[in-house]
Amino acid sequence: MKIITQTLSLLLLLQASCAAKYSHKVVKDWEKAKKEGDKLPKVEFLTRTRIDADDVENPFDWKTLTTDDYFKGKRVVLFSLPGAFTPTCSNTHLPGYENAYEDMKSLGIDEVYCLSVNDAFVMRKWGLDQGLEEDMTIGSLGFTKVKLIPDGASHFTRGMGMSNVWESNRGFGERSWRYSMVVNNGVIEKMFIEPSRVHNSDPDPFEVSDSGTMLDYLKSKVNDEL
User: Fold this and answer.
1) Nearest CA-CA partner of 181 in 164, 162, 199, 165
2) Catalytic residue chosen out of the listed positions 77, 78, 81, 89
3) Does residue 18 have an active-site annotation?
């Protein structure tokens, strides 16, 4: 009986330790990254769309978009990052793709998306802070070049198997690990995932998901077709 009691106490201590390490629920499927040839997860995104309104401070309304709305019948580039307003994301990652937007379009890309586990309000404010040109057309979803996708509830990120938790380090909570990919009609054509992925990662690797690596890949595909 004493051994059983000690064993139960040890199990409870282990459970408490795990809970203290991650107060966010961590599910293994959220960590199993999709690969080239896989289909994208079917999810819904709660976005904001511009409307014809007298309220100049908030001329937007809610609009639910699906994976198909963004990706069906298109060849697109998507890059995902840990968070709006964070240093690497703001200083290098998003600006690099914004500057390369026209080059990517000329290489057979229909659209370029930036995704983060942030809500639509944060993503728009970040885009404005970055100096992105806002699309003022009624019905638009934000900006004229790189489009910012809010994955506030992390449904897409979890479905991609790219959910990552930063709690004791940075205090982010659940976010996306940094990666980029080419998606052709909802299927992953090419994927670049930053190395050394672990929860509470101290390093923030930025080696393969940059715009330069993506441009090199797109150029190589064009050359292969010549």
Assistant:
1) 162
2) 89
3) no
